[in-house]
Amino acid sequence: MKKHLNITVSLMLIILCTVFASACDYGEASQHRGEIYALDTLITVTAYGEKGDEGIAAAKSEIRRLEKLLSVTDENSDIFRINASKGEAVEVSSETYELIEKAISISVLTEGKFEPTVFPIVKLWGFTDKNYRVPEEIEIKNALSNVNCENITLLGENRVKVPEGTQLDLGAVAKGYIGDMSAIAMEKAGVESGIISLGGNVKLMGENPQNDSWNVGVNHPEDGVAFCKVKAEEGSIVTSGAYQRNFVFQGVTYHHIINPETGYPAESDIESVTVVTQDGSLADGLSTALYVGGSEYAAELRKSQSDFEYIILTKNNELIISQALKGKTELLEGYENIKITYR
Ligand code: ADP
Ligand code: MG
After folding, report:
1. 317: which residues sit within 8 A by CB, 6+ positions away?
2. In angstroms, rounded to a whole number, what is the distance separating the alpha carbons of residues 33 and 30?
3. Residue 150 to residues 71, 166, 170, 264: CA-CA distances in angstroms?
4. What is the pLDDT at residue 210?
5. Ligand 1 site-directed mutation target among 167, 243, 256, 286, most atoms within 8 Å of CB
6. What is the dihedral of CA 178, 245, 73, 87, to 10 degrees?
7. Is the shortest distance between the CB of 260 and ligand 1 below 6 Å?
8. With a 6 A CB cut-off, is 240 part of the ligand 1 pocket?
9. What is residue 115's three-state secondary structure?
10. Which residue has its alpha carbon closest to ligand 1 atom 15?
11. Closest by CA position to 97, among listed 48, 33, 15, 156
12. Percent helix, strand and coil across the chain, each rounded to 5?
């Protein structure tokens, strides 16, 4: 019989990345800010210029629109309909179709470390409805038999088919994708530069109005404040870490990033990993995959794939940073003693 366990839940919805920009730098009139609670996190939108308020409104409605399409729990979402399809083909929006295509390519790139069909496992652990529990081994084994990205068939014309039992979860790329799409919506509304910060995912749009690079702070997993900052241009900066969502049972902490090979929470040498790249969904998917794979894997992948950079804080409290970020990262006050290796 399945036992529902008495579990202490520590849910830390912290904003992992902070963008260093103060209102006074730009003048009161030109900086506009808005907040919205969506995707299980607090999202802040900053827009510069006279069309700022229109831009923020456009970004907010884009976030709501895409959340409705991509949610695993909303019964009317595209993803919910695919997951309930019992092997039948389902027609989805062009955005969902595009994101599934991207998810498959990231899964292929990372040899399944990022795995969009991981949903049956995520559900077993209770990460979907916050009904946390440690599943029996046999349950994990059974659920794993349905986890395989090759089970997804893209039929063209926005039609998707998965066999019964296979279910999708785009949670590890959705925020990155929605950041990019919201920036496009802001641009259409007349905004040229801004920041969309979605709990650990930062989308930088256009140029910093001061005509310098943006400075993004990476939060320390334990302290919840920025410990390091990175200079970045337009693009995405995404951080993944086990401390974002987890529960403790019998003294063991179980977290929400799953190793799709084992069906258990991933155990690597990484405490938190930040990925910098242009494409938001790639940044998001890679941050999850690198967390699963560990720092050696990150360096290996970076050798064959030159369009991303990373900042890894290891469980030994060391910082491993990809070579191209040398000179662009800086430890903040109080954290100067962290050892940095460039790789
Ligand atoms: P967050 O969404 O908390 O910022 P991630 O981007 O790393 O963190 O995504 C984690 C979410 O993605 C989990 O909550 C789960 O729904 C799903 N997931 C967990 N493990 C994997 C994995 N290996 N590949 C793809 N999706 C995953
Ligand atoms: Mg991710």
Report:
1. 271, 338
2. 10
3. 22, 10, 15, 21
4. 77
5. 256
6. 90
7. yes
8. yes
9. coil
10. 171
11. 156
12. 35, 30, 40
CA-CA distance, 23 to 260, in Å (whole number)? 43
Q: Which residues contact 151 (CB under 8 A, 6 or more apart)?
A: 117, 162, 163, 166
Tokens of 248: 């403790």
Radius of gyration of the chain (CA): 20
Closest CA to 311 of 17, 10, 11: 17
Compute the distance between CA of residue 57 and CA of residue 254 in angstroms, rounded to an integer: 37
CA dihedral 69, 72, 75, 79 (to 10 degrees): 50
* Distance set, CA 340 to CA 75, 100, 211, 242, 336 (Å): 46, 36, 29, 21, 10
pLDDT at 18: 55
| pLDDT, position 22 | 39
> Residue with structure tokens 């360096």?
299
Ranges under pLDDT 50 in the chain: 1-17, 21-29
